[in-house]
Amino acid sequence: MANQSEIARIREQLDAECEAARNGMYGYAETSKHEFITARMENMSKLHDELRELVGEEADKILIEGMNG
Question: Which of 38, 40, 54, 62 would suit a FRET pair with 26, their CA atoms being 20 to 30 Å apart?
């Protein structure tokens, strides 16, 4: 089984990126909302790739859970 602490770290980062993207949709941002949300989504994609290397297809479920908040 993959390193549990590494999986937990990635899950926490995914959750933070998802929350930031949601906040970017409705909150004030110095940059355009589009740029901010795009950056969050790019970060989420990288984290998903890392997670997929550790847990395989389970990474898809974890990402969806994070996006659903």
Answer: 62
Q: Kindly state the DSSP code that residue 1 receives in the 8-state scheme.
A: -
Say yes or no to pLDDT of 1 above 70.
no
- Which residues span the domain enclosing 62? 4-68
Domain count, the chain: 1
Helix H or strand E encompassing 10: helix 4-26
Q: Which long-range contacts (CB under 8 A, 24 or more apart) does 60-63 make?
A: 62/11, 62/14, 63/14
Tokens 């909302």 appear where?
A: 33
Q: Are 9 and 54 in contact (CB under 8 A)?
A: no
